[in-house]
Amino acid sequence: MMKQMNSYIDSVFNKQDDLLEEVLSSINVNGLPSISVSPSSGKLLTMFILFQVQKTS
To answer: Cβ(42)–Cβ(35) under 8 Å?
Structure first.
């Protein structure tokens, strides 16, 4: 199920944006462990948070 969802999200948000590149670079520079969610899942989670913020504002 997650692979299908990630494929769909990737098809909608196909490009890797500057912010994601910055975050990934910062993680490596600071010796932090890799993130445990895919970029597409991260984008979906970000959208959910933004929707919730808008709903409660």
So the answer is: yes
Q: What is the pTM of this model?
A: 0.49
Look at phi and psi of residue 31 and say left if phi exceeds 0, alpha if psi is from -120 to 50, else beta.
left
* pLDDT tens-digit readout, 1-57: 778 877 887 788 766 678 878 888 998 899 988 767 777 777 888 889 999 988 887
How many other CB atoms are there within 10 angstroms of residue 5's CB atom?
13
Give φ, ψ of 28 to 5 degrees: -65, -45
Annotate 38-48 with b (16+ C-beta within 10 A) or e (fewer). ebbeebbeeee
How far apart CA 20 and CA 26 sit, in angstroms, is 10
Question: In the chain, what are the domain boundaries?
Answer: 2-56
